[in-house]
């Protein structure tokens, strides 16, 4: 699997050499495809760019991943043979590292793929592992390519052929204590490097967004998991409040406007790092609506539905009774525009932006909580309190 295949083939010469070359090539191509599709799923700005084809993209990534795993399995006998015929500890190291990466990615990948959200912490753990291994492998690949290039340059220059030492051929895979230490060192580095990166990223984004808000107020970057906005018809639009309540109700837009308005100023923070400071909010207090419908015994959770038919969020009922939690219809003194969730969006001043569901048209009081859109897709924290 090492680049050495091209430079120093085994005894059987050309056939084996080309075979290793192609195995190596396919491996590289699959890995790069996985990294590119993975980057689109991992980097928030790229993810938003994908819009609705995000899930097809994710599916493609999973399929390539499975292909990659099958390839690793199929190539294993060749790799073992190859490693056995070469002395260098680097090859053993490469080999072990590659196998652990393959296994780590596959196990965590399969878990993420089947999207088992019932054990949220397990899912978050696997997502972390998957990300860390992937982030770690980038400098590794760069180093790998660099080494290949360097060796190629070296091999172009005329050289005296090295005479193999006695007994060098048939040492098999021997792991010395040093190799084992190196292997674990590598895995440890992978985790630390990945961890540092994840730790650094939100910190730097927060720093950047703080800087930005010192300079100016910031602006809303319109986020929507769909590319088309729901249509708001003022005459027919209704907010439905149902579920475990004594008085299921619906409210027209005019009815909401006629209720006691609640106005205040509060910052808005998206979990990806951007913020808007001193936003003027106006709407009706959620507490007031809840009091009107009278939740029944056992109705301890709330699910809100967006008219986009895709986005949902869930809350503990008591979280919505906190101060300044509103269903907002005005932002900065103007009715919400179509992109901002017209005519209604939730705003909780203590929570991240993803809890501020836009185009809300149904509020359901429930016995069980369940997951919202991002909680299910990406393992976001259920409560979303600002940290
Ligand atoms: N229906 C719906 N509501 C949503 C979202 C969405 O994609 N769909 N994105 C959420 C996220 S992650 C954020 S940060 C805010 C962004 O609000 P804005 O689009 O008004 O800037 O909306 C939240 N509410
Ligand atoms: Mo967000």
From TrEMBL:
Residues passing through the membrane, by range: 21-43, 63-83, 95-114, 126-150, 180-200
This protein's UniProt keywords: Membrane, Transmembrane, Transmembrane helix
Oxidoreductase molybdopterin-binding domain ranges (all copies): 230-374
Residues in the signal sequence: none
Taxonomic superkingdom: Bacteria
InterPro entries: Di-haem_cyt_TM, OxRdtase_Mopterin-bd_dom, OxRdtase_Mopterin-bd_sf
Keyword Transmembrane helix: yes
GO terms of biological process kind: respiratory electron transport chain
GO CC, one annotated term: membrane
Pfam families: Oxidored_molyb
Descriptive protein name: Oxidoreductase molybdopterin-binding domain-containing protein
Organism: Aneurinibacillus danicus
Lineage: Bacteria, Bacillati, Bacillota, Bacilli, Bacillales
């Amino acid at each position: 699997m090492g680049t050495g295949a091209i430079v120093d083939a085994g005894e059987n010469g050309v056939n084996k050499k080309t075979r290793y070359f192609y195995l190596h090539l396919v491996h590289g191509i699959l890995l790069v495809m996985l990294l590119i599709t993975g980057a689109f799923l991992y980097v928030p700005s790229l993810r938003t760019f994908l819009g609705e084809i995000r899930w097809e993209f994710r599916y493609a990534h999973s399929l390539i991943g499975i292909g990659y795993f099958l390839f690793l399995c199929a190539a294993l006998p060749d790799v073992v043979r190859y490693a056995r015929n070469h002395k260098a500890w680097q090859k053993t190291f490469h080999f072990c590292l590659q196998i652990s990466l393959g296994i780590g990615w596959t196990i965590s990948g399969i878990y993420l793929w089947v999207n088992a959200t019932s054990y949220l912490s397990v899912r978050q753990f696997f997502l972390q592992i998957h990300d860390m291994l992937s982030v770690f492998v980038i400098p590794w690949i760069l180093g790998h390519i660099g080494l290949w290039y360097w060796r190629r340059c070296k091999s172009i220059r005329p050289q005296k052929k090295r005479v193999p030492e006695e007994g060098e051929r048939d040492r098999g895979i021997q792991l010395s204590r040093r190799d084992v230490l190196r292997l674990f060192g590598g895995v440890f580095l992978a985790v630390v490097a990945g961890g540092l990166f994840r730790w650094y990223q939100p910190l730097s984004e927060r720093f950047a967004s703080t800087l930005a808000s010192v300079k100016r107020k910031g602006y809303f970057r319109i986020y929507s998991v769909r590319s088309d906005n729901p249509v708001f018809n003022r005459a027919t639009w209704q907010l439905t409040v149902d579920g475990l309540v004594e008085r299921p109700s619906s409210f027209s837009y005019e009815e909401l406007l006629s209720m006691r308005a609640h106005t205040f100023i509060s910052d808005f923070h998206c979990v990806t790092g951007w913020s808007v400071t001193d936003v003027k909010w106006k709407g009706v207090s959620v507490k007031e609506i809840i009091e009107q419908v009278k939740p029944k015994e056992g109705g301890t959770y709330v699910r809100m539905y967006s008219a986009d038919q895709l986005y949902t969020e869930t809350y503990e009922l008591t979280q919505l009774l906190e101060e300044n939690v509103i269903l907002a219809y005005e932002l900065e003194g103007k009715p919400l525009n179509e992109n901002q969730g017209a005519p209604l969006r939730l705003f909780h001043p203590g929570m991240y932006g993803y809890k501020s569901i836009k185009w809300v048209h149904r509020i359901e009081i429930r016995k069980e909580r369940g997951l919202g859109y991002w909680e299910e897709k990406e393992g976001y924290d259920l409560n979303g309190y600002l940290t």
